[in-house]
Amino acid sequence: MSDRPSSNVDPAVAAGFGHEWSTFQQGEDTFSADDRAAIFESYFHIFPWDRLPATPVGMDVGCGSGRWSVMVAPRVDHLHLLDASADALNVARKNLANASNVTFHHASVGDLPLSDASLDFAFSLGVLHHVPDTQAAISKISTKLKPGAPFLIYLYYALDNRPAWYRALWKFSNIFRVVISHLPEKPRLWISQLIAVSIYWPLARFAALVEKLGFSAASLPLESYKDRAFYVMRTDAYDRFCTRLEQRFTRQQIHNMLTVAGFQDIRFSDRVPYWCAVGIKR
Fold it and tell me: 33-71 burial, b for 16+ CB within 10 Å, e for fewer?
C-alpha cells in the first residue's frame, strides 16, 4: 500500500466516507449476494469485458468498502484499489482478504500512484461527483490508461431526464442534505437512518406495490429500491444526506468531460442509476 500526499480531495468528505464504510461495511453478512449482483450489473452491464487483454490490470478509483472490487477482482489479473480514506481502505482490505491479486493505495484521484499508460481498464462509481474538480479527476485517470482501455464512470445526474416536479422535489430534499451533512458524526448517522425508515422504505414499498398491480413505477421517487433490502436503503440514505460536497451533471456534461479527457466511443446506460457511462481511451 502506498501512502502519498493527496490532492483534489475535500478532507471532510473523505473523513465522512471513512465513517460511512466503517459503519456499513458491505460484507457478506450484511450485503446480500442478490443485492450485490443486481447493483453490480446495473453499473457494469455496459462495460466491454471483451475489450480487455488476457491478463488485464485495472484500478478502482474511490473503492470505498471494496464492494464492487469484490466482483471485479476474480475476473482480472490484478486490481489496484485506491481511496483517500484510510478507514475505507481498512474495510476494503477486510472485504478482499481472500483476494491475492489486489493492491491498496491510500491516495486521492489527484495523486494516482501508478505509472502513466499502465492500466488496461479503470472504473469509478459514485465517487467523482464528491471531489472539488471532477474534470481534472477524469483527466488524471485517463493518463493512467493505455490506448483502447475502457473507463466506466457513474456520476450523480442533474435530473435532466426527469420532469419539473421531480427536480423541485430534489431541490427541497437537498436543503436537508446541506444541513445534515454539517452535523456531528452521530447525529448525521441517526438522522440518515430515520430518513431510511420513514422515507426510503415506504416509497420503495409503494413502488413495489404499484408494479405488482401492473402499473409502471419508473417515474416514482426511489423506485430503484423496490427490490432492494433495507440495508441498501440505510447505506444510501447516509450516502445521500451526509456528504457535504455533491455535484450533479447532465448527460451532455459527462460526455463533454470524457471527450476532453481523451475518451471516445462513449456509451451511456439507459437504466438507473443515472448517469453511468463508459468511454474508450483514444
Answer: eebbeebbebbbebbeeeebeeebbbbbbbbbbbbbbbb
